[in-house]
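[Discussion] Sanity-checking designs against the backbone

I'm trying to build intuition for which residues belong where. Below is a structure token string of 482 positions. I'd appreciate it if someone posts a full sequence so I can compare it with mine line by line.
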């Protein structure tokens, strides 16, 4: 193993689960404020809540300290302060992921770090930690290039990518993490490192798929790809035709070439005036389709068999620029409280579709906003050119459920969502996608996303670079077991 071992920081007097108040050294806080270009808040300060507010309103952070980082030096100063004060460290860009409250921790917010640079000759982009995909997509499109973004360009690049990153172009080009060239990150010793395959191969392997377990990533450099003929869109089918549409989908999708990415979802739409009348207040089935190949006529023809699978209420498929791909999934952009969780499937036989419909279909009264089946395979099933820790490559499909985490449904939604996944357990594939883990019980459930061999390798890296579990929030692994 090639790793630079990080000296263990001073033993931490508390963990995120401790109830005792955090007592900070006022002189140390004043020194931190003098060294950081962005704002520094401590518990009780006006502005702290706004600084750490997450997109997912179900999560309310109550940290001991929040640092609004503007650059890598700010991050390094924050991590050094945290280890000296015995605080765990959490990081947040947009807060889309449903993580637990970083209570008593130091939270580094990176949304002010907005640098984006595109090298059209090398076909790469360097992106700082707070950047959302929409900024990268627009910058790359000016040069006829595209990055491996997900279903929503409103999501932060770094968290999405380091959790794997499975988007509509994944079956052609692989996971977003597979395209990463280098990672700039601050580890538990407060040192800023540039991590590449030729400098720190084990850490480079681990952080691409292992997410925030090894430090605070301040910037990524990753490959961009020439923009092919994008033919994309979606079809909304009447809910009463759900069975016919989903059964047609399970036989049609496996016939598609790798240039096509698809998913299908049962959506329960609210009665909002901004929704088109055919969809307003309805439960519908939404087919999502992206062709990223060289023949637009073929891209349009491939979707034709699904157009007659049921009554189409709205939608269509046609040529689109990269900047319009959000229209395929139409993910919400306004903050909302949400519970979510996913799983992987090895197969999708007729019995699995029936089980999915019985648990989440339009005929069932469940408080879920969406239950989705997404096609995998293609480049997603192949090892990365430079191996990484992204799990789930053996799966054929992923399933994802999301519901409103409002107070009156706080117990019901998780129970119903887990029930949907349990109904599909007979067809489950091993492991899980880190970005789709959702609500987890603790480090052991996170670790189960990987094979036993990959899990032990990740833990070895964790012990080498974060032996004191400074990074112990969110989807955290623990260097110290037990």
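Best answer:
Here's mine. Compare freely.
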């Amino acid at each position: 193993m090639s790793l630079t071992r990080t000296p263990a920081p001073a033993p931490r007097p508390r963990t995120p689960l401790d109830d005792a108040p955090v007592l900070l050294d006022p002189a140390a806080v004043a020194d931190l404020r003098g060294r950081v270009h962005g704002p520094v808040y401590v518990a009780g300060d006006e502005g702290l809540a706004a600084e750490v507010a997450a997109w997912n309103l179900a999560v309310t952070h109550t940290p001991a300290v929040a640092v609004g980082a503007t650059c890598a030096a700010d991050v390094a100063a924050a991590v050094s302060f945290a280890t000296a004060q015995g605080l765990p460290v959490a990081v947040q860009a947009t807060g889309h992921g449903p993580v637990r409250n970083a209570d008593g921790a130091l939270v580094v917010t990176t949304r002010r770090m907005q640098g984006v640079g595109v090298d059209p000759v090398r076909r790469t982009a360097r992106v700082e930690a707070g950047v959302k995909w929409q900024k990268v997509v627009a910058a790359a499109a000016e040069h006829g290039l595209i990055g491996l973004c997900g279903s929503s360009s409103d999501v932060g690049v770094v968290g999405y990518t380091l959790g794997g990153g499975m988007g509509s172009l994944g079956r052609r080009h692989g996971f977003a993490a597979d395209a990463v060239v280098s990672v700039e990150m601050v580890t538990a010793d407060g040192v800023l490192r540039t991590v590449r395959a030729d400098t720190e191969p084990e850490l480079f392997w681990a952080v691409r798929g292992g997410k925030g377990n090894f430090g605070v990533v301040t910037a990524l450099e990753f490959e961009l790809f020439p923009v092919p003929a994008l033919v994309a869109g979606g079809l909304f089918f009447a809910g009463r035709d759900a069975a016919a549409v989903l059964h047609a989908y399970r036989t049609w999708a496996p016939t598609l070439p790798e240039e096509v990415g698809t998913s299908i979802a049962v959506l329960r739409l609210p009665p909002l005036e901004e929704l088109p009348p055919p969809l307003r207040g309805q439960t519908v089935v939404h087919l999502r389709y992206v062709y990223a190949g060289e023949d637009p006529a073929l891209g349009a023809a491939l979707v034709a068999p699904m157009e007659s699978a049921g009554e189409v209420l709205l939608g269509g498929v046609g040529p689109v620029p990269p900047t319009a791909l959000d229209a395929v999934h139409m993910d919400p952009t306004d903050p909302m409280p949400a519970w979510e969780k996913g799983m992987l499937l090895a197969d999708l036989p007729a019995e699995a579709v029936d089980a999915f419909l019985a648990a989440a279909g339009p005929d069932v009264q469940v408080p879920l906003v969406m239950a989705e089946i997404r096609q995998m395979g293609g480049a997603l099933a192949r090892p990365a050119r430079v191996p990484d820790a992204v799990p789930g490559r053996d799966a054929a499909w992923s399933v994802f459920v999301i519901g409103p985490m409002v107070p009156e449904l706080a117990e019901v939604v998780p129970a119903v969502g887990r029930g949907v996944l349990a109904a599909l357990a007979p067809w489950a594939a091993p492991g899980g996608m880190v970005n789709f883990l959702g609500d987890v019980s603790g480090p052991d459930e996170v670790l189960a996303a990987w094979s036993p061999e990959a899990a032990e390798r990740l833990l070895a890296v964790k012990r080498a670079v974060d032996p004191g579990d400074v990074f112990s929030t969110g989807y955290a692994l623990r260097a110290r077991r037990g």
